[in-house]
Amino acid sequence: MPEHNRFRSVRTTLTAGTGVLALGAALTACGSSSAADSGKPSTEVTVYSADGLHSEAGDGFYDKAFNDFTAQTGVKVNYVEGGSGEMVQRLAREKSHTRADLIVTLPPFIQQAASKGLLTAYRPAGSEQVGAADKDASGAWTSIVDNYLCFIYNTKALSQPPKTWDDLLAGTYRNKLQYSTPGVAGDGTAVLIKAVHDFGGQGPAMDYLKRLQANNAGPSASTGQLAAKVDKGELLVANGDVQMNYADMASMPNQGIFFPAAAGGRPTTFALPYAAGLVRNGPHQDAGRKLLDFLLSKDVQREVSSVGGGFAARTDVTATDPHAAELRKIMAGVDVFTPDWKDIDAHLPAYVDAWKSATGS
Length: 361
Hints:
Blueprint: H1 16-32, H2 35-38, E1 44-50, H3 61-73, E2 76-82, H4 84-93, E3 102-105, H5 109-115, E4 119-120, E5 142-146, E6 149-154, E7 177-178, H6 186-199, H7 202-212, H8 224-232, E8 237-241, H9 242-248, E9 255-258, E10 268-270, E11 274-279, H10 285-295, H11 298-301, H12 303-308, E12 311-312, H13 322-331, E13 335-337, H14 341-359
Parallel strand pairs: 1-2, 1-3, 7-8, 10-13
Antiparallel strand pairs: 3-11, 4-11, 5-11, 5-12, 6-8, 6-9
Helix pairs in contact: 4-5, 6-7, 7-14
């Protein structure tokens, strides 16, 4: 693939605790007062985000976008990273003393944040160019980077990827297959959603996942940890998402992307965008709005593929860089379905409980 040397491992595995250690002073300061109290424009903004767009090497999509934003506005970006569900849980815990201004997380957790009353409606400039399925009708959240669920396999050990879900039941994958935990990790929850879709309902999906458990190497709170294991051959198959795994290929060249199909069916996936919402009662909402406007600007959206290995959220931005072309090849021949996110948000605890019961997790 061309120009992979431009990417390093984009997905880092920072827990929320690590982020607090790095940003403790900043968060203490922003939690004690706000620009709104003083009537002055904010000079900082705090972002809680699911992992995937920040690079430990400092050359990821967030790294460039945040640096450019600070250079243009003088507003410093404080960044805290964790699992999709973890970030929403943290917002809920801090509801009486809000520290974050923006949250970026995957479905169904962005819907969960909205239903818990943790977000305030804001339609950023450019959001009219985001597809209806990739934003909230009431303005609670808007996608800033489009992305899709995928699986990965070790290309050195396997000459070709597994084609179907049933292929993953083979003894070859005993303790060599792992997927991140539904209800905790966004990509892990996506595995559950895809299984329910592909098998035609919750019952058949749980029956399958119960059988698959014999090959599962164990729980994983972070999807990002799995890519390195696949690259090293510790695992043969794991779940992931296209943006993360494509961007990782520069530093982890022994992984390939695939989409398992139901027996006799076509490979499927669904959009798993990084969706951003303005946090209700955030201490620097003026800066939060500015940053959200900036992330959806055309110039920044054109860099989603070239810098971040993802897909632009704006439909009026057509990327022409080599990475965008490779991403289109990856998605060729894959059927993309649209989950009923309202139903999933309402029934997610029941789905996760059913998964725990089926798998003994």
